[in-house]
Design brief:
The complex is a heterodimer of chains A (407) and B (294).
Chain A lengths: L1 H23 L3 H20 L8 E7 L6 H20 L8 E7 L4 H14 L3 E3 L4 H14 L2 E4 L13 E3 L4 H14 L5 E7 L3 H13 L6 E8 L8 H9 L4 E4 L3 H13 L5 E4 L21 E3 L9 H14 L5 H19 L8 H12 L4 E3 L2 E6 L5 E2 L4 E5 L2 E4 L2
Parallel strand pairs in A: 1-2, 1-3, 3-4, 4-5, 6-7, 6-8, 8-9, 9-10
Antiparallel strand pairs in A: 10-14, 11-12, 12-13, 14-15
Helix pairs in contact in A: 2-3, 3-11, 4-5, 6-7, 11-12
Chain B lengths: L1 H31 L6 H17 L5 H24 L7 H23 L4 E2 L9 E3 L4 E3 L1 H23 L1 H11 L1 H6 L4 H26 L2 E2 L5 H14 L4 H21 L5 H15 L14
Antiparallel strand pairs in B: 1-4, 2-3
Helix pairs in contact in B: 1-5, 1-8, 1-9, 1-10, 2-3, 2-4, 2-8, 2-9, 3-8, 5-6, 5-8, 6-8, 9-10, 10-11
The chains are: A alpha/beta (407), B mainly alpha (294).
Chain lengths: 407, 294
Amino acid sequence: MKKALSLLVGAVMALSLCACGSSGSAPAPTEAAKAPTAEAAGEAKADAPAADGPVWKIGGQGPLTGGAAIYGIAVVNGAEIAIEEINQNGGINGYQIEYQKADDEHDQEKAINAYNSLKDWGMHFLVGPTTSSPTIAVGTEAEADNLFMITPSGSAVDCTAPKNVFRVCFSDPAQGAKSAQYIGTHKLAEKVGVIYDSSDVYSTGIYESFASEAPGQGLEIVATEEFTSESNKNFSVQLQKMKDAGAELVFLPFYYTEASLVLTQAASMDFKPIFFGCDGMDGILNVENFDTSLAEGLMLLTPFAADATDDLTVSFVKNYQDSYGETPNQFAADAYDAVYIIKAAAEKANLNPEMSVSELGDAMQKAITEIEVDGLTGSGMTWNEGGDVDKEPKAVVIENGAYASAE
Amino acid sequence: MMSFVSYFLSGVSLGSVYAIIALGYTMVYGIAKMLNFAHGDILMVGAYVAFLGLNSLGLPIPLATLLAMVTCTLLGIIIERAAYKPLRQANSLSVLITAIGVSYLLQNLALLLFGANPKSFSSFVPVGAVRFADGALTISGETLVTIAACVIIVAGLIHFINHTKAGQAMLAVSEDKGAATLMGVDVNRTIALTFAIGSALASIGGILLCSAYPTLTPTTGAMPGIKAFVAAVLGGIGSIPGAFIGGILLGILENLSKAYISSKLSDAIVFSVLIIVLLVRPTGILGKKIMEKV
């Protein structure tokens, strides 16, 4: 009997693993299709005179398969575009860049394996990881190696705790404070309601900094309601309370999956405040079969809008579409900026690839706090020693089913 | 006051969905004496089939609903034949583990087939919202239809069990499998029928759930499945009116504690009530007392 039971358990586990594995590998074809681009980068290198001398080795890391693959693929693609551009324009301090990417499946252990494989390859700098928990795991390893790393999108506070880790995006709490400042300076509303996911560190972090910043911006928080990942379907009670409290704007610092439910239920109860979200809201227009008219007027704080008309954004979006056939999201833009930030800091400190990883790490940590970078995700970006960026937030508003810059 | 009515009604509506799902748990438990933890995932499959029927095949709403019901019925029968029937003589722990395995299997298959990205479910309820007192109180069509559907299903099931031959056979099997076999009841067919009915109900529950809360992902069924299981235990597992009462109570309790105590603590409050009820009445509200024979 016992044997039968253990066999059964084994079979069930194997089965679910199989299913996991194959679902995870579903996005693989796009990956395989992308593989030749590494060769393309190699060809670009071959044209350049410095090809046989030392080269920069930049690693990229993120979930390329599995549920969070949409973020990781965007990050490695965005970084790849920046590297091709830099190589065509003579590289960093005259040295070409080689690029290698690794898949961490949004898993801490696999993230360390991916990091180690990049290190064995001889990586000088790391653009990644993409998501917060792998960033925290890899950061500790990279600190021991004193390897300079810049995460495009790891937004949890702890991501930049190691001294060698910097980031392109805002930290979670910074998004909350910046949202309150934006609502206050643009006088969008005075009576504000907040719904947040009390079981999620991202959502709670944004809420707390929003709540402490709001009074200083002339905002009155008239209602604060929570939900958890176990009760994330029925928002009718929370919305009714917002309605009764007379909230003119409802702040939704969580992901678009739940937000699409909030918007639907608010519409069905004739509640029409301004809805305001953070970067987790990015993606709501891509929910299959979602009635985008429900999102009309929704505002979100995001560092990057693909429809912006400045030259840099226009050429990036065009290159990205030509290479990968899709419109880039903010993760791709963050990664693109990350590569240029490495370039700016390496040029500032006048580094070359023959220096050791640890020497490069020391020099980069100092140089990044001295530079100012204009990128896709903000102009005049500067960094403090803690690894966090300072830049002006941008807001977009959904108009006619598409993002438009809010001014 | 208007807010209270609104909280209360949306609680009844949520509770009605729990009740419809809980019926499947309670019937299968009553008759096969097993907890079918894959029930919540059958609900999810039903919702996906209905979604595809409406949006990809372009079927009208009644046909898409029927397609979902037929698919889930077949799925329920197949799961029972392939995974549970061979274990009929095994101990209950093996069956429980198998059920959890089937649950993960269905979730991961859905992940493979439909991807992790959420789909927005179009409402299957053609009834518009009803407004009272100049819009101070709005009751959505989904709320009304869900409550009505639940009442009709419960009444229909009670009639089926008490007044048809197949229903009587189910009662007999639930009371004593061995004796029922001796009386000429085909136990295997009766259990298969139970799974078929339970799964068809799950697909209706899935459609109503997703009509009211329109996000569809491979894990959509997991949490409502667990809540419905709680509802079935609260009402007295094995009892059909018990599942109904348990479901409605759970829904109202969840919404009112969210509204008047704390939206953060609502789940804690709901589950505390469950513990207290079970301490006072270990078999649930309508559960039968079973004398242990020593």
